[in-house]
């Protein structure tokens, strides 16, 4: 008997493990308090993962595989994964143990250390999901994502002509992907699902699992099967891709999904393969070039083939030290309004309340609203990590940590990005419509009614000049600061200091 472990984010029906049925193989899946409790997750996130795991186990069983699935009720006697595995190896009298490589350092280290002490043969196999290996940081150009992305475009022949050159003569159409959403632009209704998970919800309550956010246990909106994930992909291609690239950075209160695919949960749980999504997007664009421009599909593919693979490569190259980086020495605690959305800053309020309601926010809400505020306010990256890892349905450490600690908080000193993603209120006004109805005045740099992003932006540059002053991409902002009068600078710094002392009241 060989016992094979399948983790909750390894729901890959196309894995080579499942090509044949073998009565001498048992697949083990388990809901564990270890996984519900390593951070405080959004309730929809826990419900979605457990529901997807159960559906996957049922599909394996239907396909003829032998499956041992343990619910949270059944796994309760074992406090962690090693103790559960030891008990199941004994119960099944297993003579071999195998597992797919985990994507999180935490689980990879735990499993490797535990398996090394077993007296039976063990085997670790690839999860057969990513387009680059764990050591991809060393195999591909890694100084910047753009070069990493180009190398993968060539390797997988994505959006290339017959000479191997980028279609349209450009590798990147990002300059065309920064439009504000016009009030006249219709937004497609998001495709959601009505998965009934009341039994799982009751189980979480019974076990006292602490969660954040809200959830409708009678109609969980996230895809929990491969069929639902494919339906979400087809919906995106048909209704959202035509305008995705153009408005992917837009901020709006008119909808929580806009033109985004929301496929990250399906991909991060491995119900969808990234190359499958990329090929589908390219094929759909090729068949609909009259209505979908190249810039739209390139912007989408870059998120998957570029950023997704790049952040994973960085994660595995720099862990575990990466999670301790704090280049800017940020030390402030996360304000309480990150947990309830009770702030007078309209953009921050909307992004947080949307996150609490839907377990979702698109990348610019995460990067340039909540992330930008945390960066400017000097929030400790540990606290920012914990919030991002818990609140979003798609958040798994390998993708969350580099995006949060690196790209958003610049705590890695520039491995992810060449400059901090910091901005004043002007950017938020340019990309969204929040400022018109906000309590604060976006045009004012100082004073009690001025937009906090304005004074905090300049204070951020001022207090970090020893670390950021020589960055060539910040030369213009520093020149702008130096060009202001002493009185203007002092008024801005005084306002910022007041905001920093009273973050909870903003």
Topology of this protein?
Layout: E1 2-5, E2 25-30, H1 33-37, H2 43-62, E3 66-70, H3 72-75, H4 81-91, E4 96-100, H5 105-115, E5 122-125, H6 136-139, H7 145-156, H8 198-206, H9 226-247, H10 264-268, H11 274-287, H12 294-318, H13 346-358, H14 363-377, H15 381-391, H16 397-408, H17 425-431, H18 452-463, H19 465-468, H20 475-482, H21 486-501
Parallel strand pairs: 1-2, 1-4, 2-3, 4-5
Helix pairs in contact: 7-12, 9-11, 9-12, 11-12, 12-16, 13-14, 14-16, 14-18, 15-16, 18-21
Report what the structure shows.
With 506 residues, the protein is mainly alpha-helical. Helices cover 47% and strands 5% of the residues. Helix 5 links the parallel strand 4 (96-100) and strand 5 (122-125). The longest helix has 25 residues, at 294-318.
């Amino acid at each position: 008997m060989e016992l094979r472990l399948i983790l909750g984010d390894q729901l890959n029906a196309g894995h080579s493990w499942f090509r044949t049925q073998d009565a001498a193989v048992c697949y083990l899946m388990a809901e564990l308090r270890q996984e519900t409790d390593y951070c405080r997750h959004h309730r929809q996130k826990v419900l979605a993962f457990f529901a997807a795991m159960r559906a996957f186990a049922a599909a394996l069983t239907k396909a003829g595989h032998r499956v041992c699935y343990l619910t949270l009720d059944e796994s309760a006697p074992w406090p962690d994964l090693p103790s559960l595995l030891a008990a199941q190896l004994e119960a099944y009298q297993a003579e071999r143990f195998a597992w797919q490589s985990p994507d999180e350092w935490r689980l990879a280290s735990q499993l490797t250390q535990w398996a090394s002490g077993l007296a039976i043969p063990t085997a670790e196999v690839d999860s057969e999901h990513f387009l680059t290996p764990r050591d991809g940081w060393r195999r591909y150009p890694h100084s910047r994502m753009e070069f990493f992305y180009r190398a993968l475009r060539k390797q997988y022949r994505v959006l290339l002509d017959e000479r191997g050159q980028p279609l349209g003569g450009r590798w990147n159409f990002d300059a065309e992907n920064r439009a504000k959403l016009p009030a006249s632009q219709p937004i497609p209704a998001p495709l959601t699902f009505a998965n009934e998970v009341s039994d799982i919800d009751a189980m979480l309550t019974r076990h006292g699992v602490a969660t954040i956010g809200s959830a409708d246990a009678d109609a969980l909106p996230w895809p929990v099967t491969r069929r639902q994930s494919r339906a979400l992909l087809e919906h995106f291609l048909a209704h959202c891709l035509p305008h995705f690239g153009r408005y992917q950075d837009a901020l709006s209160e008119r909808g929580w999904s806009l033109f985004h695919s929301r496929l990250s949960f399906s991909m991060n749980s491995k119900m969808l393969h990234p190359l499958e999504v990329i090929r589908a997007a390219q094929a759909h664009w090729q068949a609909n070039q009259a209505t979908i421009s190249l810039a739209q599909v390139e912007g989408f593919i870059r998120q998957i083939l570029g950023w997704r693979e790049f952040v994973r490569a960085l994660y595995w190259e720099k862990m575990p030290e990466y999670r301790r980086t704090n280049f800017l020495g940020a030390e402030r605690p996360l304000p309480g309004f990150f947990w309830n959305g009770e702030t007078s800053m309209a953009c921050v309020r909307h992004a947080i309340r949307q996150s609490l309601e839907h377990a979702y926010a698109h990348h610019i809400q995460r990067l340039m609203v909540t992330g930008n505020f945390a960066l400017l306010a000097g929030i400790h990256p540990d606290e920012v990590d914990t919030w991002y890892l818990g609140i979003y349905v798609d958040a798994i450490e390998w993708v969350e940590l580099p995006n949060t600690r690196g790209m958003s908080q610049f705590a890695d000193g520039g491995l992810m990005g060449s400059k901090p993603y910091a901005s004043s209120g002007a950017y938020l006004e340019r990309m969204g419509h929040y400022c018109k109805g906000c309590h604060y005045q976006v045009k004012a740099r100082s004073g009690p009614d001025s937009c906090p992003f304005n004074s905090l932006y300049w204070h951020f540059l001022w207090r970090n000049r020893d670390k950021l002053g020589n960055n060539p991409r910040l030369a213009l902002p520093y020149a702008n600061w130096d060009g202001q009068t002493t009185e203007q600078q002092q008024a801005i710094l005084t306002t910022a200091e007041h905001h920093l002392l009273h973050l909870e009241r903003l």
